[in-house]
Amino acid sequence: MNGTADGLRLPDGFLWGASTAAHQIEGNNVNSDWWQMEHEGGSVAEPSLDAADSYHRWREDMDLLAELGFTDYRFSIEWARIEPAPGHYSRAELAHYRRMVEGALERGLRPMVTLHHFTVPRWFAERGGWTAEGAAYLFERYVRATAPVIGTGVRHVCTINEPNMIAVAGAIRELGSEAPPAAGLPLPDKATTDALIQAHHRAVDAVGAISSDIQVGWSIANQVYQALPGAEAATAAYRHPREDVFIEAARDDDWIGVQSYTRTRITPDGPVPAPTDAELTLTGWEYYPQALGHALRHTASLVGDVPLIVTENGIATEDDTRRIDYTTGALKEVAAALEDGLDVRGYLHWSALDNYEWGSYKPTFGLISVDPSTFARTPKPSAAWLGGIARTRVLPRAAS
């Protein structure tokens, strides 16, 4: 690994970009389960409505990312648009997403395509979702149908974003008002866990059949479980069904996505809130950029030589200077991991745009702000700063 006086030089081919998710930026995803939930009577979720209108403005978004210096863009395609009814595929939507792939390539952005980012078609949810009979097959069938989108020009495909959070969400739905407080996560639904792992493996095979040139993986939400004194065994037991079982399922994949934002401290009795004097972000999470280093090392310890890609890392804040400070700390962790020999292949920031954060527009993670009325995009100083690293190809390095 080559270094300079200012930091660590990135290896050739390193992915450097930002991430988004279709439902969070496109707008009017009316055939999805999330849209239906947002508009149910009694829902506490703010509706997504037009979101950032990126369904129509994706060219502008890609232009900005390319002009800022980024080389990679992770975006998702929407199952509910592509297969609005069981077994019926929209040629128009497939063509739309293919235009996005080609548009990225034309701008010098390497596309990473996520096939599932939390939302499913209404019909899939209504038949029982992931725990219904044949769910994994139905996902595989959809993946096969995406061949016109991903068949050429796409090097990296993410099958499912944060399956551990999908399994946790299933448990929360089952618990209802009995769901645990924010300091902890409920035990993921075992049937959902099994179905998601099966769906992932079937999707990996389906993508491989589309093109052997595609590198396939999935991304895991790393909570960075840290054991307080006497809680080592409790932490391992707490972490395994919520995280490790999903990481272990990627041992035969081409890569695994590491997604990290903060840490979770564990006592013998379970998780505890952030320290009372800790700085909190707009999501209520502890400001803790070191989490990314812990997440990379823990993931590597479980998957062995499977390459790592940071597919999400960022902070919800109105103070862009804190975003730069946080990301500087996180990138120092990436540099340290690379220097220690971990096979880290990329860093994709969350998120490219301020967007719909699953029930609210208040948490602003974006490098680019979006006016809610005009949809005007305005890059923040953090966007120019982070894009500039792509030009220098040098990561900040922690002081020795």
In terms of DSSP E residues, the strand content is: 15-25%
Shape: globular
CATH superfamily: Glycosidases
Q: Specify the structural class.
A: alpha/beta
Query: What's the CATH class, please?
Result: Alpha Beta
Biggest sheet, open or closed, and with what strands and sense? 8 strands, parallel, barrel
Gyration radius, to the nearest Å?
A: 20 Å
- Helix % is 40-55%
3D structure, described in words:
It is a single chain. With 400 residues, this protein is α/β, with parallel strands linked by helices. It has one domain: Alpha-Beta Barrel (TIM Barrel). Helices cover 40% and strands 17% of the residues. The strands form four sheets. The chain has an eight-stranded parallel barrel, surrounded by six helices. The chain has a three-stranded mixed β-sheet with strand order 7-9-10, covered by helices on one side. A two-stranded antiparallel sheet has the order 1-15. A hairpin with a 6-residue loop joins strand 13 and strand 14. Helix 7 packs parallel to helix 10, helix 9 packs antiparallel against helix 10 and helix 13 packs parallel to helix 14.
Task: Offer a concise description of the structure.
Helices cover 40% and strands 17% of the residues. It is α/β, with parallel strands linked by helices and 400 residues long. It has an eight-stranded parallel β-barrel, surrounded by six helices. A three-stranded mixed sheet has the order 7-9-10, with helices on one face. A two-stranded antiparallel sheet has the order 1-15.
